[in-house]
Each structure stands twice: as C-alpha cells, then as structure tokens.
Amino acid sequence: MKILGIGLIVVALLAPLIWLPAHGQGKDVIALGSQYLGLVSLIAMAFAHLIATRWRGVEAVFGPMDQSYRVHKWLGIGAMVALLLHDTIDAEMKGLGPETLLVEAAETAGEISLYGLLILVTITIAVFIPYHLWKWTHRFIGIFFVAGFLHYLFILKPFKNSDPLGLYMTAICLVGIVAYAYTAAPRGVRPSRPYRITGVSSEGNAVAVQMMPEGKPVRYRAGQFAFFGFTGSGMAEPHPFTISKAPDDTGALRVTIAPLGDLTARLSRALAEGQPVTVEGPYGHFGRPGKTPQVWIAAGVGITPFTALAQSLAPDAAPVTMIYAFRSADEAAHLAELEAIAADKPNLTLVPWASEEKGRLDGEGVASITGKDLSGHRVLFCGPVAMRRALGLALAPFGLTARNYHYEAFEIRTGLGLRRLAIKLIDRI
C-alpha cells in the first residue's frame, strides 16, 4: 500500500487535534477524549466509503486495489473500535446547553448507528456467512454512517458546526456520504463497458468465458483484473475476475472461472453464449516483466494472470520460469495453450507440476527447478493464501526477500486472522 494514502489517512485522523484541545479547555479531559474517538470513527468510515467507490484515483493514492481493499477493511474495523470506545467512555460535558428534542433525537441516531454498524461489521468478518448475504447487508452500512453524521451534527459538543473543526468534520462526512451514494446508486450510474459473451468452454475444472465489446472496449494491461456483472445470467452484482488473455486490437476479453465458492459455482453453470455482461475496470498492478529474471508460480485457477502475461511476454524480456501447480493435467486450465506459448518463446520456460505424481509443491521443489539462489530473481505468485504464505517462508533461505515476492491478495472480504494467530500460539506452547 502507498505511503501517500496511509499518510493522508493519518493526517485526517489527527487533524481534529489542531482545534479540539482549545475547545476543551476547562472541561472534562476524559469526555473530550471520548468525543475525539467519535470524530475518528466518522473520519475512518468516510475514507472507507471513498475507497469502496473504486474511483480511478483510489489506486493512485492508496495503492493497487487489493491493497486498497485491505485499507478499507481495517478502516472499518478501526472505526468500529473507536465507536465502541466512544460509547463506553462517557462523552457528556456539563454546561454545553439544554437537552432539547433535537439533541435527544441525535442521541438516538447515535445508538442506531452504533448497533447497526456493529452488526454489519460482525457479518463482514464472520466469513462463514455466505457471500451473497454479506453483500446484501453491506449495502446498508452507509445508512448507519449517515445516522452517525446526524448524531455528530446535533449532539451537544464543545464546538459549533460553524467552527473550523465543525466545518472540517462536515466536509469529511459529506465526502463519505457522496461516496456511499455513488456506490449505492443503480448500476447504470457507475461507469462500465457493455460486452457480450461469445463463447463458453471448459478448461480443466474451470470455465473460460470469451466476450466481445459492444462499444468502446476496456483498455487494460496483462495481469490486471476487472469487475464483471453477468447481467444475462441474472447475476448483475459485479465480481472481480482476472482477465486471462493479453490485450489485442479487437478489445476481446476472457475470464477463467473455477467453481470455488457459492457465486462462482452458480456462475459456471449459468453462463451461456449471447448473454450481456458489464465490465468495470481495469484494476491492479500485478506482473510486469522487465530486466530481472522472474519466477512465476501459479496454483490452480491462479494461472489466469500468468496466461495473459505469457501471451504478452516480449522477446527481449528477461528469462521467466513458470511453475504451474495443479492436481492432475486433466484439471489444469489453459495447459495446452501455455505449452504452445512456451514452445514459441525462448525466454519462457514452463514447468508443469502435477501434485498427484510429484506431491505438493514446496520450497525445495521450487528451488530444484530454479536453482538454489533466488536472490537475483523476482518471484510472482498467484494461488491459495496458505500456499502463498508457506512458499514465502520456505523460499527465504534460498535468498527470496519480501521485497521480491509479489502477489495480489485480492480478497474483498476477509476475517481478522484470529484463527491463524491462535494456531501460531498453540504451536509455541
């Protein structure tokens, strides 16, 4: 994630401290701290809504979309923690004014915001709850943010809404509300490109979907992904898929979908030639072959970005070793296509790894293929998270550094990692 985006968030969160101490002179310090926590919660939620828009500038400020979404997740969790602390620590100050009906209504709005956000954030990190249910409930999160903003506007506080701090908070919250309105608006409001499916074919245990533009095509680089709304199959909610072919003059796109979850399983059965598709994007910065030798490690449907990268590999690019791990050859998507590409490109070496025959791919297996010294290589990985972490640790003794280990951790919805932490603690006992 980019330092620019993190720095912007930190400055925005600390900015109220420029004015708040002066407004709190002679007042309860603990209550003042609680009010600051309430402001922090609103600022964090506003930034979370801003990132969720996927506006073009988001990646420029906060980093590639996979990293931006991690910032989005932790902003939401941080906002919830700050809000719970704000509710727990008494924020009431004496002598600020009478308890009017408007003030009481603002207090009620604050309670609605607190409990509504608590429920929705819990659903978000409880990854066992089905994706479609989470997605449906998540659209209401902005309503509770608006309730929190109304609570802020009309609650008794040590400064006026017309003061510099009041104007600052109002501006921040309005940005968040505009961002929420944009994400909650009908799909026609968001910029997208119309496509139509021209072919659906089996690729191992996955389905390859070819599509052509019905107007101006999406301009993208190999390795990028986009959000696809398969409106013709009744699944209009955009979902991210990596584009599994290199750009060409026709504007054609291809995505390769493996039935790994509830939505993808339904999609793989419902898609058919002739159906319309909407495409938003592209996003991401994964994989740019250059002057440094590279090792590409793909597992299962993680082959999708490498298929596009292999097609676009320039003759003068540095040598690339592609290790493609799969259970058996009949389950491997695009294997024959990649073999043909490798046969035509001297700087691309394809190494299929069938786990049924060779066992699970590990650090020793990678080192045996690439050589024992990876210090001068960039390693790109796409596949299961557990395998990514295991290889990162296993390849460190062979010279692989975190700086040279590249991957996209694009997970719209993730837990807190508490299970992994618990396993580590148990292993130490």
Automatic annotation (TrEMBL):
GO cellular component: membrane
Location within or outside the cell: Membrane
Signal peptide: none
Positions of the FAD-binding FR-type domain: 184-289
Cofactor(s) for this UniProt protein: FAD
Gene Ontology MF: a single term: flavin adenine dinucleotide binding
UniProt keywords, alphabetically: 2Fe-2S, FAD, Flavoprotein, Iron, Iron-sulfur, Membrane, Metal-binding, Oxidoreductase, Transmembrane, Transmembrane helix
Pfam short name (any one): NAD_binding_1
Location (main, coarse): membrane
Topology with respect to the bilayer: Multi-pass membrane protein
Transmembrane segments: 36-53, 112-133, 140-159, 165-185
PANTHER family given in the database record: 1,2-PHENYLACETYL-COA EPOXIDASE, SUBUNIT E (PTHR47354:SF8), NADH OXIDOREDUCTASE HCR (PTHR47354)
Name of the molecule in the record: FAD-binding FR-type domain-containing protein
